[in-house]
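User: Quick sanity check before I run a bigger batch. Here is a single chain. Can you write out its predicted 3D structure?
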Amino acid sequence: MDEQPDPVQDAAEGTGGALDRRAELSEFLRTRRARLKPEDVGLPDFGRHRRVPGLRREELAQLAGVSVAYYTRLEQGNGRNVSAEVLDAIARALRLTDTEHDHLTHLAKPKQNKKKAAGRPEQVRVSLRQLLDTLDTVPAYISGRYCDILAWNGMAAAVFGDWARMPVQERNWARLVFLNPEYRELFVEWDQKASDMVSYLRMAAGVYPDDPRLSALVGELSVKSEEFRRLWATHDVKEKGHGVKHLRHPLVGELTLNFESFRPPDNCDQGLVIYHAEPGSASADALRLLASWGADATRSGKASVSPDTAA
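Assistant: Done. Predicted structure follows.
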């Protein structure tokens, strides 16, 4: 199962323009500064009324060891000629995580070669598709830069839905999570899944601010989902390479699955995600039951995967 999304669809899916990198940098710094209090960073709080939440610009500049004017220009989106050393100092002052630090660097000092691949259909290597086919007892799939579901195995279809029957442009995790009611029911902790999706798109937007298809996806979701708009405005970024997902499957009930995510070294935009259950658990028994049903084990409970499309 490896049909590729058509990049031509972006014309109908949003604004089709580029994200404003200066605005992204400005809002990211402002929101990171707003979450810190003077006592969090060892500064005295004299109890005076603070017009804005969090640290003042002059307090942040003091912590980072730069002038207020310099930091103000940076927070206004002017990252031109900023040094890596200054960004490191600001990241320390803001108590940024490694992922947030990387995001700040991408926003302030974008790499010009990042836009050359924009718009091309993403391809999955044959050997990776073959690897998916060998994982016949656990759900596994490959997602791409835009959260598109590029390839998957039969167990992924049994657990997450019959993606082969969806229009290509709908095989996208962000659209499924925010726009498809079935996936709100599937994920027990839907709020966390939604937050993770927005964080991933934020990171991608930092690396590829000039990608029109990514901007179109963000525009579409912003128009159609109030929850997406709210989460997008937080500017939160985080990366989850492993964890636990709690699912509510209509055929086998509650599933608790561990997941691990791997990025091929030759294509960091793609991720191979594999789910598995604790040995001897009820969830492991449920996965074995779904595997024994084969193509009949779709989330709708119908045998809707034809032999020529089943992975």
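Residues 1-16, 300-311 have pLDDT under 50 and may be disordered.

User: Great, the batch can go ahead then.
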